[in-house]
């Protein structure tokens, strides 16, 4: 509509310039009431009010204007311009009006179509003698593909140029299985590929969902899932697929997401205050007054043997559950992401539940050889499973939520601090290791309700629970346990926090108060509002 209005305005402008003989655009301001020119229902008034310039032009028009032969009759209703209600009418009107232009829109469009058709019939040869016959177009249907994967060795899920990603391998497997034509195999956008939740580098997913267009005829093949899995690595699996409505979009129709975080219980061992040496890990100054960091020592094998004997007391476990329970509800999580102002409404997120499982015993591998032989009961490590169900998550939100509870429990900080982090005060909260994070499954509750009414299939991961649980134990949980045993990831993270606690995390105190020294007045990162669009919605990638 705005485009048509612009063209109409330009038309009247040129019309009046020719009618009264104005050659320069500036001169028309002295000749025509410009405000009337931009009114939608503008009609010419008697030309006796207008200045007629003695310039070369149409003599008949000029003489008619001087004699006032073109005028509106007194008492007669004003005539309104004809309005073109369809795009075709407007296009034909413009083609008739602007004949002085080279060609018209219809001719340009038809010539472009002819060029495209001629280019499609050839393979790029100049002579055009060699023709390539394209595959006949086959009907496609939108489907939701349920997948799971171990992210080790991959740089995230979403397709990224010059990077090894989960979606790239899945897309190639779909093409190899015949679900996608060769004509569409060069660009995933041609088949509307979209994921329900993204994951970062090395992050796993027991259940995730991809919406994509498959051939209609191939959907009914019973062994299609097996054909796709044959072309995938063992650490990537397709659980099944569901035919959906044509407008189905994996990300926008996803109601909520469930993440799981695995955490060894030794991270809750109370911190001894005298073990922190003020001269270690803090900034030092050399002769040139330049600041430099001192490297934090890594955990030793002897230290880890003692720590893995730790068993969390029931009282401490209750405090942990109370702490994570405080996250439930709608709160402002600006302190649990990067580059966000407390005034941004997008920082308000809804957490439906945050559950902590009972402790689970896992056998410890040798830190050097990875040997699984276990002879003593105290060589078992104790782990907790944290499951958070939320509408959506921002960048690093889950990892920062876990880190704050761990620091509070081991420093005996009051749990009242949690609610203070939802206020406008900006503090620095570190990230827990990405090692323990995995996407459990996306939830499509609203879509399933409509699917029942329309006779469509439901999107459910529970029907594949047996296969998913076996996959998690073999490819996800084992990878997390092994890397922690071999690299001491969580203890090294605790060491880095302890050597900076007094300087950066002054809010860790028994009263749960945030001192002025711990408030971030001028955060280094700029508040970027665009960081949340595809993720800051970490939908995914925490």
TrEMBL record:
Key word Isomerase present: yes
Taxonomy of the source species: Eukaryota, Fungi, Fungi incertae sedis, Mucoromycota, Glomeromycotina
Catalytic residues in the record: 200 (nucleophile)
Pseudouridine synthase I TruA alpha/beta domain residues: 325-441
Name of the protein described by the UniProt record: 13857_t:CDS:1
Catalysed reactions listed for this entry: a uridine in tRNA = a pseudouridine in tRNA
Binding sites annotated in the UniProt record for substrate: 259
Region of interest (Disordered), residue spans: 66-136
UniProt organism field: Cetraspora pellucida
Family per record: Belongs to the tRNA pseudouridine synthase TruA family.
NCBIfam families in UniProt: hisT_truA (TIGR00071)
Pfam families membership: PseudoU_synth_1 (PF01416)
KW Membrane (keyword) present: yes
TM region positions: 203-225
One Gene Ontology term of the molecular function aspect: RNA binding
Basic and acidic residues bias spans: 86-95, 103-123
PANTHER family: PSEUDOURIDYLATE SYNTHASE, PSEUDOURIDYLATE SYNTHASE 1 HOMOLOG
């Amino acid at each position: 509509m705005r485009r048509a209005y612009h063209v109409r305005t330009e038309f009247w402008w040129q019309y009046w310039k020719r009618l009264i003989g104005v050659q320069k655009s500036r001169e028309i301001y002295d000749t025509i009431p410009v405000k009337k020119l931009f009114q939608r229902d503008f009609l010419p008034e008697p030309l006796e009010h207008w200045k007629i310039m003695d310039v070369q032009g149409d003599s008949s028009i000029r003489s008619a204007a001087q004699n006032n032969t073109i005028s509106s009759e007194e008492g007669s209703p004003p005539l309104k311009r004809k309005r073109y209600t369809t795009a075709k009418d407007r296009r034909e009107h413009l083609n008739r009006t602007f004949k002085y232009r080279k060609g018209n829109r219809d001719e340009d469009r038809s010539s472009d179509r002819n060029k495209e058709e001629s280019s499609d019939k050839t393979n790029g040869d100049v002579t055009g003698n060699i023709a390539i016959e394209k595959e006949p177009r086959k009907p496609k249907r939108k489907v939701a593909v349920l997948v799971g994967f171990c992210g080790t060795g991959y740089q995230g899920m979403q397709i990224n140029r010059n990077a090894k990603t989960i979606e790239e391998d899945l897309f190639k497997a779909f093409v190899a299985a015949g679900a996608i034509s060769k004509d569409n195999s060069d660009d995933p956008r041609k088949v509307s590929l979209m994921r329900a939740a993204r994951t970062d580098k090395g992050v796993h997913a027991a259940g995730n969902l991809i919406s994509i267009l498959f051939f209609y005829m191939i959907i009914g093949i019973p062994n299609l899932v097996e054909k796709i899995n044959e072309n995938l690595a063992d650490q990537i699996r397709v659980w099944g697929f569901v035919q959906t409505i044509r407008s189905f979009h994996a990300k926008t129709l996803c109601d909520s997401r469930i993440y799981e975080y695995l955490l060894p219980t030794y991270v809750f061992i109370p911190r001894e205050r005298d073990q922190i040496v003020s001269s270690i890990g803090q900034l030092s100054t050399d002769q040139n007054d330049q600041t430099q960091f001192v490297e934090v020592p890594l955990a030793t094998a002897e230290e880890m043997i003692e720590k893995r004997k730790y068993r969390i007391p029931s009282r401490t476990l209750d405090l942990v559950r109370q702490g994570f329970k405080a996250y439930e509800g709608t709160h402002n999580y600006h302190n649990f992401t990067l580059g966000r102002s407390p005034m941004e409404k997008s920082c308000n997120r809804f957490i439906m539940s945050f559950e902590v499982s009972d402790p689970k015993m896992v056998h410890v591998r040798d830190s050097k050889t990875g040997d699984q032989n276990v002879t003593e009961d105290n060589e078992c490590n104790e782990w907790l499973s944290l499951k958070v169900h939320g509408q959506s998550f921002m960048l690093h939100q889950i990892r920062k939520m876990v880190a704050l509870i761990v620091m509070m429990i081991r420093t005996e900080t009051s749990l009242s601090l949690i609610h203070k982090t939802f206020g406008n005060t900006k503090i620095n909260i570190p990230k827990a290791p990405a090692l323990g994070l995995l996407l459990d499954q996306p939830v499509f509750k609203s879509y399933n309700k409509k699917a029942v009414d329309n006779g469509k299939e439901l999107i459910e991961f529970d029907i594949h629970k047996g296969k998913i649980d076996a996959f998690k134990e073999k490819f996800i949980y084992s990878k997390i346990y092994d890397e922690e045993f071999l690299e001491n990831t969580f203890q090294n993270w605790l060491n880095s926090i302890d050597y900076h606690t007094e300087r950066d995390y002054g809010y860790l105190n028994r009263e749960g108060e945030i001192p002025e020294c711990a408030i971030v007045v001028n955060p280094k990162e700029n508040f970027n509002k665009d960081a949340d669009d595809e993720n800051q919605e970490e939908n995914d990638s925490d």
